[in-house]
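At this stage, I wrote out one protein's amino acid sequence and its C-alpha coordinates, and that material follows here:
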Amino acid sequence: MASKKMHLPCRVGAQDAETHGTSLAQISQAGRWNQSVLCQAYLTHLPRQFMRIVAGFSASPGDYFLARAAHEPPYVLQKQLWPWIEEWEPRFEARARRQCWAEGGLDDDDLAADGFLKLMRRLRIVLLQDLAVLQPRYLSLPFFAYAPFNGPEWDEFAVAVRSDAVGATEPLSLLVQCALPELSGVLESTREAVLQNSQRLAIRLEAQLEGIQDGLDALLQGKVHVTFTGHFRAGPAVSLAPAPPSTAPTLNFNTAPAPAPAPEPPVPGMPVVAALAKVFTVRDVWKEWKEGIAGQPAIRVLEETWGSRWRPGNGIRVQFCRRKVTWDELLRAGRSLNRLVDKLKQRRRRGQGQGRIRVQVGNPVPDDPGPGPRPTRGQGHRGRWARLGRRRTAPRRR
Protein backbone atom coordinates (compact mmCIF):
# COMPACT_ATOMS: atom_id res chain seq x y z
CA MET A 1 0.00 0.00 0.00
CA ALA A 2 2.85 2.36 0.86
CA SER A 3 4.52 1.55 -2.47
CA LYS A 4 1.36 2.50 -4.39
CA LYS A 5 1.06 5.81 -2.55
CA MET A 6 4.70 6.60 -3.29
CA HIS A 7 4.41 5.85 -7.01
CA LEU A 8 0.99 7.49 -7.46
CA PRO A 9 2.36 11.00 -8.35
CA CYS A 10 4.76 9.48 -10.86
CA ARG A 11 1.93 7.53 -12.43
CA VAL A 12 -0.39 10.55 -12.62
CA GLY A 13 2.34 12.79 -14.02
CA ALA A 14 3.29 10.26 -16.69
CA GLN A 15 -0.35 9.76 -17.73
CA ASP A 16 -0.97 13.51 -17.84
CA ALA A 17 2.11 14.04 -20.01
CA GLU A 18 1.05 11.23 -22.34
CA THR A 19 -2.45 12.72 -22.62
CA HIS A 20 -1.02 16.05 -23.77
CA GLY A 21 1.18 14.47 -26.44
CA THR A 22 4.51 13.84 -24.74
CA SER A 23 6.57 11.09 -26.33
CA LEU A 24 7.46 7.93 -24.43
CA ALA A 25 11.16 8.75 -24.69
CA GLN A 26 10.59 12.08 -22.91
CA ILE A 27 8.54 10.41 -20.15
CA SER A 28 11.18 7.71 -19.65
CA GLN A 29 13.94 10.30 -19.50
CA ALA A 30 12.01 12.38 -16.94
CA GLY A 31 11.27 9.42 -14.65
CA ARG A 32 14.79 7.95 -14.97
CA TRP A 33 13.27 4.79 -16.44
CA ASN A 34 15.59 4.81 -19.43
CA GLN A 35 18.83 3.18 -18.33
CA SER A 36 20.62 3.35 -21.67
CA VAL A 37 24.18 4.63 -21.85
CA LEU A 38 23.08 7.51 -24.07
CA CYS A 39 20.62 8.88 -21.48
CA GLN A 40 22.78 8.16 -18.45
CA ALA A 41 26.15 9.42 -19.70
CA TYR A 42 25.61 11.85 -22.57
CA LEU A 43 22.13 13.44 -22.39
CA THR A 44 20.89 15.77 -19.70
CA HIS A 45 18.13 14.78 -17.28
CA LEU A 46 15.99 17.73 -18.35
CA PRO A 47 13.44 16.57 -20.97
CA ARG A 48 12.28 19.90 -22.32
CA GLN A 49 9.07 18.71 -23.95
CA PHE A 50 7.97 17.00 -20.75
CA MET A 51 8.82 20.08 -18.70
CA ARG A 52 6.77 22.36 -20.99
CA ILE A 53 3.68 20.16 -20.75
CA VAL A 54 3.91 19.78 -16.97
CA ALA A 55 4.27 23.58 -16.66
CA GLY A 56 1.01 24.08 -18.58
CA PHE A 57 2.32 24.88 -22.05
CA SER A 58 1.82 22.91 -25.26
CA ALA A 59 4.25 20.33 -26.56
CA SER A 60 5.50 22.48 -29.45
CA PRO A 61 7.89 25.26 -28.43
CA GLY A 62 7.20 28.92 -29.11
CA ASP A 63 3.40 28.82 -29.35
CA TYR A 64 2.76 31.02 -26.31
CA PHE A 65 2.81 34.78 -25.89
CA LEU A 66 4.08 36.84 -22.92
CA ALA A 67 3.55 40.57 -23.27
CA ARG A 68 6.11 41.41 -20.57
CA ALA A 69 8.83 39.51 -22.47
CA ALA A 70 8.78 42.22 -25.14
CA HIS A 71 10.41 44.73 -22.76
CA GLU A 72 14.15 44.33 -22.16
CA PRO A 73 15.14 45.61 -18.69
CA PRO A 74 17.73 48.41 -18.68
CA TYR A 75 21.29 47.26 -18.12
CA VAL A 76 21.47 49.49 -15.03
CA LEU A 77 18.85 47.30 -13.38
CA GLN A 78 20.36 44.03 -14.62
CA LYS A 79 23.82 44.56 -13.21
CA GLN A 80 22.39 45.27 -9.74
CA LEU A 81 21.22 41.65 -9.54
CA TRP A 82 24.09 39.22 -9.06
CA PRO A 83 26.84 41.65 -10.03
CA TRP A 84 29.44 38.90 -9.80
CA ILE A 85 28.27 37.75 -13.27
CA GLU A 86 30.12 40.70 -14.85
CA GLU A 87 33.19 39.84 -12.77
CA TRP A 88 33.47 36.23 -13.93
CA GLU A 89 32.46 36.53 -17.57
CA PRO A 90 35.74 38.29 -18.60
CA ARG A 91 37.71 35.39 -17.09
CA PHE A 92 35.83 32.84 -19.15
CA GLU A 93 36.38 34.95 -22.28
CA ALA A 94 40.10 35.11 -21.47
CA ARG A 95 40.14 31.34 -20.95
CA ALA A 96 38.78 30.97 -24.49
CA ARG A 97 41.97 32.77 -25.60
CA ARG A 98 44.03 30.22 -23.57
CA GLN A 99 45.00 32.65 -20.79
CA CYS A 100 45.73 31.46 -17.23
CA TRP A 101 44.55 32.90 -13.88
CA ALA A 102 47.48 35.28 -13.58
CA GLU A 103 46.66 36.69 -17.02
CA GLY A 104 43.02 37.29 -16.13
CA GLY A 105 41.65 33.93 -17.27
CA LEU A 106 41.25 30.45 -15.76
CA ASP A 107 43.70 27.64 -15.22
CA ASP A 108 41.24 24.94 -16.35
CA ASP A 109 38.25 24.81 -18.65
CA ASP A 110 34.90 24.79 -16.85
CA LEU A 111 31.95 24.35 -19.20
CA ALA A 112 29.46 23.90 -16.36
CA ALA A 113 30.40 27.23 -14.77
CA ASP A 114 30.19 28.97 -18.13
CA GLY A 115 26.69 27.58 -18.68
CA PHE A 116 25.70 28.59 -15.15
CA LEU A 117 26.71 32.20 -15.80
CA LYS A 118 24.65 32.31 -19.00
CA LEU A 119 21.67 30.84 -17.16
CA MET A 120 21.89 33.40 -14.35
CA ARG A 121 22.12 36.24 -16.87
CA ARG A 122 18.91 35.00 -18.51
CA LEU A 123 17.13 34.42 -15.19
CA ARG A 124 17.74 37.92 -13.89
CA ILE A 125 16.01 39.34 -16.98
CA VAL A 126 13.04 37.03 -16.39
CA LEU A 127 12.98 37.96 -12.69
CA LEU A 128 12.83 41.69 -13.40
CA GLN A 129 10.03 41.25 -15.96
CA ASP A 130 7.95 39.06 -13.64
CA LEU A 131 8.40 41.27 -10.56
CA ALA A 132 7.31 44.33 -12.54
CA VAL A 133 3.92 42.64 -13.03
CA LEU A 134 3.68 41.11 -9.51
CA GLN A 135 4.69 44.21 -7.52
CA PRO A 136 1.17 45.74 -7.33
CA ARG A 137 -0.16 42.47 -5.88
CA TYR A 138 2.54 42.03 -3.23
CA LEU A 139 3.52 45.50 -2.07
CA SER A 140 4.28 44.25 1.45
CA LEU A 141 7.22 42.13 0.37
CA PRO A 142 10.37 43.54 2.01
CA PHE A 143 12.76 43.26 -0.97
CA PHE A 144 10.71 45.83 -2.92
CA ALA A 145 12.20 48.44 -0.55
CA TYR A 146 15.72 47.80 -1.81
CA ALA A 147 17.55 48.43 -5.08
CA PRO A 148 16.91 47.92 -7.90
CA PHE A 149 13.15 48.02 -7.14
CA ASN A 150 12.87 51.57 -5.75
CA GLY A 151 14.63 53.85 -8.23
CA PRO A 152 13.43 55.98 -11.17
CA GLU A 153 14.72 53.46 -13.69
CA TRP A 154 12.66 50.74 -12.07
CA ASP A 155 9.51 52.85 -11.93
CA GLU A 156 9.76 53.70 -15.63
CA PHE A 157 10.37 50.07 -16.61
CA ALA A 158 7.56 48.75 -14.39
CA VAL A 159 5.00 51.23 -15.77
CA ALA A 160 5.83 50.23 -19.39
CA VAL A 161 5.53 46.53 -18.60
CA ARG A 162 2.21 46.90 -16.75
CA SER A 163 0.65 49.05 -19.47
CA ASP A 164 1.37 46.43 -22.15
CA ALA A 165 0.33 43.55 -19.91
CA VAL A 166 -3.14 45.03 -19.31
CA GLY A 167 -4.22 45.46 -22.93
CA ALA A 168 -1.96 42.88 -24.55
CA THR A 169 -3.44 40.72 -27.28
CA GLU A 170 -1.93 37.64 -28.78
CA PRO A 171 -0.76 37.99 -32.38
CA LEU A 172 -2.99 36.57 -35.09
CA SER A 173 -0.37 34.11 -36.28
CA LEU A 174 -0.15 32.60 -32.80
CA LEU A 175 -3.94 32.42 -32.50
CA VAL A 176 -4.18 30.56 -35.80
CA GLN A 177 -1.40 28.18 -34.78
CA CYS A 178 -2.96 27.47 -31.39
CA ALA A 179 -6.63 27.33 -32.39
CA LEU A 180 -6.27 25.63 -35.75
CA PRO A 181 -3.10 23.56 -35.75
CA GLU A 182 -4.49 21.32 -38.48
CA LEU A 183 -5.12 24.31 -40.73
CA SER A 184 -1.59 25.52 -40.14
CA GLY A 185 -0.22 22.08 -41.04
CA VAL A 186 -2.36 21.88 -44.19
CA LEU A 187 -1.23 25.30 -45.34
CA GLU A 188 2.41 24.41 -44.75
CA SER A 189 2.11 21.10 -46.61
CA THR A 190 0.28 22.83 -49.47
CA ARG A 191 3.03 25.39 -49.73
CA GLU A 192 5.69 22.67 -49.87
CA ALA A 193 3.74 20.78 -52.54
CA VAL A 194 3.36 23.92 -54.67
CA LEU A 195 7.07 24.66 -54.39
CA GLN A 196 8.03 21.11 -55.37
CA ASN A 197 5.66 21.13 -58.36
CA SER A 198 7.05 24.47 -59.47
CA GLN A 199 10.60 23.16 -59.26
CA ARG A 200 9.74 20.02 -61.26
CA LEU A 201 7.94 22.11 -63.89
CA ALA A 202 10.89 24.49 -64.14
CA ILE A 203 13.31 21.57 -64.59
CA ARG A 204 11.08 20.01 -67.28
CA LEU A 205 10.71 23.27 -69.18
CA GLU A 206 14.44 23.88 -69.02
CA ALA A 207 15.14 20.42 -70.45
CA GLN A 208 12.64 20.98 -73.29
CA LEU A 209 14.13 24.38 -74.10
CA GLU A 210 17.61 22.86 -74.22
CA GLY A 211 16.36 20.18 -76.62
CA ILE A 212 14.73 22.77 -78.88
CA GLN A 213 17.87 24.90 -78.83
CA ASP A 214 20.07 21.91 -79.73
CA GLY A 215 17.71 21.02 -82.58
CA LEU A 216 17.78 24.54 -83.97
CA ASP A 217 21.57 24.66 -83.74
CA ALA A 218 21.89 21.35 -85.57
CA LEU A 219 19.40 22.52 -88.21
CA LEU A 220 21.25 25.76 -88.85
CA GLN A 221 24.56 23.89 -89.10
CA GLY A 222 23.13 21.43 -91.64
CA LYS A 223 23.41 18.34 -89.41
CA VAL A 224 19.72 17.39 -89.55
CA HIS A 225 17.72 16.34 -92.62
CA VAL A 226 14.23 17.82 -92.44
CA THR A 227 11.39 16.53 -94.62
CA PHE A 228 8.45 18.87 -95.26
CA THR A 229 5.15 17.27 -96.23
CA GLY A 230 2.38 19.30 -97.82
CA HIS A 231 0.95 20.50 -101.10
CA PHE A 232 1.13 23.60 -103.20
CA ARG A 233 -1.75 25.71 -104.32
CA ALA A 234 -3.72 24.19 -107.18
CA GLY A 235 -3.01 25.56 -110.63
CA PRO A 236 0.25 26.17 -112.45
CA ALA A 237 3.39 25.14 -110.65
CA VAL A 238 4.98 28.56 -110.09
CA SER A 239 4.89 31.68 -112.21
CA LEU A 240 8.41 32.92 -112.70
CA ALA A 241 7.38 36.28 -114.15
CA PRO A 242 7.00 39.10 -111.64
CA ALA A 243 3.38 39.56 -110.63
CA PRO A 244 1.45 41.58 -108.08
CA PRO A 245 1.46 40.24 -104.53
CA SER A 246 -2.20 39.21 -104.79
CA THR A 247 -1.45 36.69 -107.60
CA ALA A 248 1.97 35.55 -106.36
CA PRO A 249 2.17 31.78 -105.77
CA THR A 250 2.99 30.66 -102.26
CA LEU A 251 4.47 27.44 -100.96
CA ASN A 252 2.36 26.01 -98.13
CA PHE A 253 4.18 23.60 -95.81
CA ASN A 254 2.82 21.94 -92.70
CA THR A 255 6.03 22.53 -90.79
CA ALA A 256 8.86 24.90 -91.58
CA PRO A 257 12.00 25.80 -89.65
CA ALA A 258 12.57 29.32 -88.42
CA PRO A 259 14.91 30.75 -91.09
CA ALA A 260 17.45 33.41 -90.35
CA PRO A 261 16.49 36.99 -91.26
CA ALA A 262 16.86 37.54 -95.00
CA PRO A 263 19.43 40.14 -95.98
CA GLU A 264 17.05 41.57 -98.61
CA PRO A 265 13.24 41.80 -98.58
CA PRO A 266 11.51 39.37 -100.99
CA VAL A 267 10.57 40.75 -104.38
CA PRO A 268 6.83 40.57 -105.21
CA GLY A 269 6.16 37.49 -107.29
CA MET A 270 9.40 35.75 -106.31
CA PRO A 271 8.87 32.19 -105.01
CA VAL A 272 10.52 31.45 -101.66
CA VAL A 273 11.39 27.78 -101.01
CA ALA A 274 12.00 26.70 -97.42
CA ALA A 275 13.43 23.23 -98.21
CA LEU A 276 14.21 21.02 -101.18
CA ALA A 277 12.20 17.89 -101.85
CA LYS A 278 13.45 14.52 -100.66
CA VAL A 279 15.23 12.53 -103.40
CA PHE A 280 16.69 9.03 -103.40
CA THR A 281 18.28 8.51 -106.85
CA VAL A 282 20.50 10.44 -109.23
CA ARG A 283 17.64 10.50 -111.74
CA ASP A 284 15.48 12.37 -109.20
CA VAL A 285 18.30 14.83 -108.56
CA TRP A 286 18.68 15.53 -112.28
CA LYS A 287 14.91 15.83 -112.71
CA GLU A 288 14.78 18.30 -109.84
CA TRP A 289 17.40 20.45 -111.59
CA LYS A 290 15.95 20.16 -115.09
CA GLU A 291 12.18 19.94 -114.64
CA GLY A 292 11.32 20.17 -110.93
CA ILE A 293 9.65 17.60 -108.66
CA ALA A 294 7.04 17.56 -105.87
CA GLY A 295 5.29 20.56 -107.37
CA GLN A 296 8.37 22.75 -107.17
CA PRO A 297 9.76 24.58 -110.18
CA ALA A 298 13.05 23.57 -111.78
CA ILE A 299 16.08 24.64 -109.80
CA ARG A 300 17.83 25.70 -113.02
CA VAL A 301 15.00 28.12 -113.82
CA LEU A 302 15.00 29.53 -110.29
CA GLU A 303 18.75 30.11 -110.39
CA GLU A 304 18.63 31.76 -113.81
CA THR A 305 15.69 33.99 -112.89
CA TRP A 306 16.19 34.94 -109.24
CA GLY A 307 19.76 34.00 -108.39
CA SER A 308 20.11 33.11 -104.72
CA ARG A 309 17.18 35.22 -103.48
CA TRP A 310 14.68 32.36 -103.76
CA ARG A 311 16.56 30.44 -100.98
CA PRO A 312 17.05 32.97 -98.13
CA GLY A 313 17.16 30.49 -95.22
CA ASN A 314 20.30 28.81 -93.91
CA GLY A 315 18.76 25.33 -94.15
CA ILE A 316 17.86 25.63 -97.84
CA ARG A 317 21.29 27.08 -98.59
CA VAL A 318 23.02 24.08 -97.01
CA GLN A 319 20.82 21.67 -99.00
CA PHE A 320 21.44 23.57 -102.23
CA CYS A 321 25.23 23.54 -101.76
CA ARG A 322 25.22 19.80 -101.13
CA ARG A 323 23.14 18.97 -104.18
CA LYS A 324 24.98 21.42 -106.39
CA VAL A 325 27.99 19.09 -106.27
CA THR A 326 25.89 16.35 -107.90
CA TRP A 327 24.36 18.75 -110.41
CA ASP A 328 27.80 20.01 -111.46
CA GLU A 329 29.07 16.46 -111.99
CA LEU A 330 26.03 15.58 -114.08
CA LEU A 331 26.43 18.72 -116.19
CA ARG A 332 30.15 18.08 -116.71
CA ALA A 333 29.52 14.46 -117.78
CA GLY A 334 26.78 15.60 -120.16
CA ARG A 335 29.03 18.20 -121.81
CA SER A 336 31.83 15.62 -122.32
CA LEU A 337 29.43 13.21 -123.97
CA ASN A 338 28.00 15.92 -126.20
CA ARG A 339 31.48 16.95 -127.35
CA LEU A 340 32.29 13.33 -128.21
CA VAL A 341 29.11 12.96 -130.26
CA ASP A 342 29.84 16.21 -132.11
CA LYS A 343 33.35 15.05 -133.02
CA LEU A 344 32.05 11.74 -134.36
CA LYS A 345 29.57 13.56 -136.53
CA GLN A 346 32.34 15.79 -137.89
CA ARG A 347 34.48 12.72 -138.79
CA ARG A 348 31.63 11.12 -140.64
CA ARG A 349 31.07 14.30 -142.60
CA ARG A 350 34.79 14.49 -143.53
CA GLY A 351 34.91 10.81 -144.46
CA GLN A 352 37.26 9.87 -141.65
CA GLY A 353 34.83 7.72 -139.81
CA GLN A 354 35.21 4.61 -142.04
CA GLY A 355 35.19 1.24 -140.39
CA ARG A 356 34.37 0.43 -136.80
CA ILE A 357 34.82 3.24 -134.32
CA ARG A 358 35.45 2.42 -130.67
CA VAL A 359 33.79 4.88 -128.27
CA GLN A 360 34.78 5.01 -124.64
CA VAL A 361 32.36 7.16 -122.66
CA GLY A 362 34.08 9.67 -120.45
CA ASN A 363 37.39 9.70 -122.41
CA PRO A 364 37.09 11.59 -125.74
CA VAL A 365 38.84 10.04 -128.73
CA PRO A 366 41.49 12.45 -130.09
CA ASP A 367 41.43 13.49 -133.73
CA ASP A 368 45.19 13.00 -134.17
CA PRO A 369 46.65 9.91 -132.51
CA GLY A 370 49.97 11.78 -132.21
CA PRO A 371 53.52 10.59 -132.80
CA GLY A 372 54.43 6.94 -132.19
CA PRO A 373 55.13 3.66 -133.99
CA ARG A 374 52.63 2.78 -136.67
CA PRO A 375 52.17 -0.52 -138.52
CA THR A 376 53.95 -0.80 -141.86
CA ARG A 377 51.66 -0.43 -144.86
CA GLY A 378 50.70 -3.78 -146.34
CA GLN A 379 52.03 -5.85 -143.49
CA GLY A 380 48.84 -5.98 -141.45
CA HIS A 381 49.30 -8.17 -138.41
CA ARG A 382 52.82 -9.09 -139.54
CA GLY A 383 53.86 -5.52 -139.30
CA ARG A 384 52.51 -5.47 -135.76
CA TRP A 385 54.57 -8.55 -134.80
CA ALA A 386 57.63 -6.99 -136.40
CA ARG A 387 57.11 -3.91 -134.29
CA LEU A 388 56.51 -5.76 -131.02
CA GLY A 389 58.98 -8.58 -131.70
CA ARG A 390 58.24 -12.22 -132.63
CA ARG A 391 57.93 -14.63 -129.75
CA ARG A 392 60.72 -17.15 -129.83
CA THR A 393 59.84 -20.79 -129.25
CA ALA A 394 61.97 -23.95 -128.94
CA PRO A 395 62.23 -26.23 -132.05
CA ARG A 396 59.57 -28.91 -132.16
CA ARG A 397 60.84 -32.47 -131.71
CA ARG A 398 59.86 -35.16 -134.12
